[in-house]
Specification:
alpha+beta, 3-stranded antiparallel β-sheet, 14 helices, 13 strands, 26% helix
């Protein structure tokens, strides 16, 4: 586990609006003027600054890229890649993205040193792997289809005390927390977590009091002995409700090469863009990707922890029953032999999540509404949101044809980012209370509550609560015209 980064009040100052045209991925000066309310840099001055030192070169250059995939599942075709060339400014470093694109646009020795790719980030890729919510990935072989169906049945099967439920638990089946809009979706029922954070000592999940997750239900035999819902541990500095996210498409996430995740990491903000995402590495140096803090590297550990803590079901790796606020339960409360689920059942649950497809976009038939979504995507990029909400990944090679080198939408870089004080509550080992893995945006249109604790009832409220590294993008959202805001929200609801 990496050392926990220290809180930095300067974090999030990248994309400063005072440096407006030089940092933001602007589609054009005209575009900026059309979506911002006020304080837009003077168009003529900005135009001249881009042209300065680049004789005869336009500020916004367009180049054709063959077979560029069109977003939201509409096939592939020729599309234009728009890039912005900016002149050198004293002391400013190139972003990694700019360094990669520059040789193909500006040429050697050109004084134009900052290039931003503005559209079509996935050139020449296959169509996206996605279906209606709740369905398996296309292309499963017969054995995978069977494992998916059996795993889905187990995922939605209620457990009872007679087959291992409890003694302490929150829900009696996996699907209780993942059922909206279908099996495998997000959940409306919150769970309660409490932790202690000290700036010097770091984070404690309060293991002496039973851990950070509170179990609020007990089986009848435990109740008869005087046990009830767990109480908030003494010494906790934060307590919060957590809403379960959807588990669609996690098999694709599992197949992303670690190098592809690490390529976006910049923990020390070496490129000076104000974004300092870092991976959550386990003790063996593997990259975490599952959980709100990316605390799990693989699906099996992610699933095993969930059924043990949420349902009180023992597993081969953890055959011991949960304590009640840190106090062991008396023998005889639970008579089911441990472990209460075996390796075969766990593998079926893994197969179900591994082969559950991500949902396809929600697209209207009305051409005007579709145009608003497309414009909203451009504004999303203009705001700099895709610096963390990486639109898509391609899986590595896999023995499963359904997972082998598949392009899929994610809108997350799977890295930890400081989100500022508004979203700071509980902590995790080595992770500040304000640090969270970038939330996946795919499936956002199926939700009615937003953020990790569900406090935001509207998407706009969720955006406005962003801080830290996302503060500059939030501030641009505040400055958008009403129409531009509506278009951004329409794009997000389409995901």
């Amino acid at each position: 586990m990496p050392a926990m980064r220290q809180a930095d009040s300067s974090r999030g100052r990248g994309h400063d609006l005072q440096r407006f045209p030089a940092v933001f991925p602007i589609l054009s000066i005209h575009f900026a003027a059309s979506v911002l309310r006020r304080d837009v840099p003077d168009r003529t001055a900005a135009r001249d600054s881009f042209h300065d030192g680049v004789p005869g070169r336009r500020a916004v250059v367009q180049r054709l890229a063959p077979a560029c995939p069109r977003e939201r599942g509409r096939g592939t075709g020729d599309a234009q890649v728009r890039v912005q060339i900016q002149r050198r400014q004293r002391g400013r470093r190139l972003t990694t993205k700019a360094r990669k694109i520059l040789p193909h646009v500006a040429g050697k020795g050109s004084p134009a040193v900052a290039v931003v790719l503005l559209s079509c980030g996935a050139l020449g890729q296959a169509p996206y792997a996605e279906t209606e919510p709740g369905l398996p990935l296309p292309g499963l072989v017969a054995s995978e289809q069977s494992a998916f169906a059996r795993g889905e049945a187990l995922f939605n099967r209620p457990f009872t005390p007679e087959n291992g439920l409890g003694p302490l638990f929150n829900q009696d089946r996996c699907g209780s927390c993942h059922d909206l809009p279908t099996s495998g979706g997000h959940g409306a029922e919150p769970v309660i977590k409490a932790t202690r954070f000290d700036p010097v000592e770091g984070c404690s999940t309060l293991p002496e009091h039973g851990g950070d997750l509170l179990q609020t239900v007990v089986i009848e035999s435990a109740r008869a002995m005087g046990f009830g819902a767990e109480r908030t541990p003494p010494g906790a500095t934060a307590i919060t409700e957590i809403r379960a996210p959807a588990v669609y498409g996690l098999g694709l996430v599992e197949q992303i090469a670690e190098a592809d995740i690490m390529r976006n990491a910049d923990p020390d903000d070496a490129d000076g863009d104000g974004i300092s995402g870092r991976p959550n590495l386990d003790a063996d140096g593997r990259v975490g990707r599952f959980g709100r803090r990316a605390q799990h590297t693989a699906l099996d550990g992610f699933i095993e922890e969930a059924i043990r803590l949420e349902m009180g079901i023992t597993t081969p790796a953890h055959p011991e029953e949960l304590d009640h606020n840190g106090v062991p339960l008396p023998e005889g409360i639970d008579l089911v032999p441990d472990p209460e689920v075996g390796a075969e059942e766990l593998e079926l649950l893994v197969a179900y999540m591994r082969f559950l497809a991500p949902p396809q976009p929600i697209l209207p038939e009305d051409p005007g509404a579709l145009a608003d979504i497309e414009e909203g995507e451009r504004i999303f990029e203009f705001m700099g949101c895709d610096a963390c909400h990486t639109p898509a990944f391609t899986t590595a090679t896999s023995e499963s044809p359904a997972l082998d080198r598949k392009r899929f939408r994610l809108y997350s870089d799977l890295l930890l980012h400081d989100m500022g004080p508004e979203l700071a509550d509980i902590c995790s080992p080595g992770i500040l209370p304000s640090e969270w893995k970038t939330a996946r945006l795919v499936g956002l249109g199926h939700r009615s509550e937003f953020l990790h604790d569900g406090r935001a009832q509207r998407l706009s409220d969720a955006i406005l609560l962003h801080g830290g590294e996302a503060a500059a993008s939030r501030d641009v959202f505040r400055r958008l015209t009403d129409q531009a805001r509506s278009q951004v929200l329409a794009f997000l609801r389409s995901l």
